Amino acid sequence: MTLLNPLASSLSKGHAMPTENRDDTLAAPHAQAGAPALAAAIPAGHGHVTTSEFKIRARDVNVFYGEKQALFDVSLDVPAKSVTAFIGPSGCGKSTFLRCINRMNDTIPSAKVQGSIEIDGADVNAKSVDPVVLRSRVGMVFQKPNPFPKTIFENVAYGPKIHGLASRKEDLEGIVESSLKKAGLWNEVADRLHQPGTGLSGGQQQRLVIARAIAVSPEVILMDEPCSALDPIATAKIEELIDELRSQYCIVIVTHSMAQAARVSQKTAFFHLGKLVESGPTEEMFTNPRDTRTQDYITGRFG
């Protein structure tokens, strides 16, 4: 199979998901016994809980900012315990859709979201779902590192404290250590936990933010261009971390880097002018896209 772009050589064996249908947005869910954590916030009658290879299912999502429509009828399934990359030119709607998953658009007064987004069968937009609780289950990492003006320890401990996840000091210390280890930062900061988090390098700050996100045991981690402000060495560490975390979490990453999407993701979705053009296993998207717009973007003809 001929690669459309030299960047696609970044794809490693095993990144593709050969069992996944390229028309996965229409795939039917399978039945599940037992309610997941997020669904527990939704009363009976507000949708049944399902299980499948997909963690997130979006159908006919439209987003408006005042009179301007930013997303048009987006339907997409996001696999569990894998990395899904959203690619596309600036202003195409990929970050807008990402923010729909944990209702960050609620913070924008003019924003209006239509359609359905479910996590484990639970509608995230149901009136019974507390956005604060939702965001503890769906963590978010932004473009620029944003540690709190607190110590490294307090940055990671903040979430577990406010959500009541640790009743004893020993439990809290265990969560902080475990989270920093998962974020690949423990060995670099273990002897300075009580120094300011803002004193770390940019790459270390971003890993601290990731540690803060995973400290509350989320099910999904959203990353909006997490490496855009980092140097190549720090970027490589974040990408390595993402690859390690995907065995435990559903990760969705927005990126402008084709090479990064090829390296870290198993599924890729291409957005253009507010519409989802196509999605599928990353290797197939980079070697055999179905839509000429995808091919043109991947090969650098626009964007």
For the termini, the CA-CA separation is 25 Å
Q: What is the H/E string? A: EEEEEHEEHEHHHHEHEHEEHH
Main sheet: strands, sense, barrel: 6 strands, mixed
Spans where pLDDT lies below 50 across 5 or more residues: 6-51
**Radius of gyration using CA atoms only:** 19 Å
User: What order do the strands of the largest sheet run in, or round the barrel if closed?
Assistant: 8-9-10-5-11-12
State which percent range the strand residues make up: 15-25%
- The dominant shape is globular
How many β strands by DSSP?
A: 12
SSE-based structural type: alpha/beta
Number of helical segments? Answer: 10
Written description of the protein model:
The chain has helices spanning 94-101, 131-137, 152-162, 169-182, 186-189, 202-214, 232-245, 258-264, 282-287, 292-298; strands spanning 30-31, 50-51, 54-65, 68-79, 83-87, 111-119, 122-123, 138-141, 220-224, 250-254, 267-272, 275-281. The protein is of the alpha/beta class and 303 residues long. A 6-stranded mixed beta sheet has the order 8-9-10-5-11-12, with helices on both faces. Strand 9 (220-224), helix 7 (232-245) and strand 10 (250-254) form a beta-alpha-beta unit. Helix 4 crosses helix 6.
Give the SSE layout.
Blueprint lengths: L29 E2 L18 E2 L2 E12 L2 E12 L3 E5 L6 H8 L9 E9 L2 E2 L7 H7 E4 L10 H11 L6 H14 L3 H4 L12 H13 L5 E5 L7 H14 L4 E5 L3 H7 L2 E6 L2 E7 H6 L4 H7 L5
Parallel strand pairs: 5-10, 5-11, 8-9, 9-10
Antiparallel strand pairs: 1-2, 3-4, 3-6, 6-7, 11-12
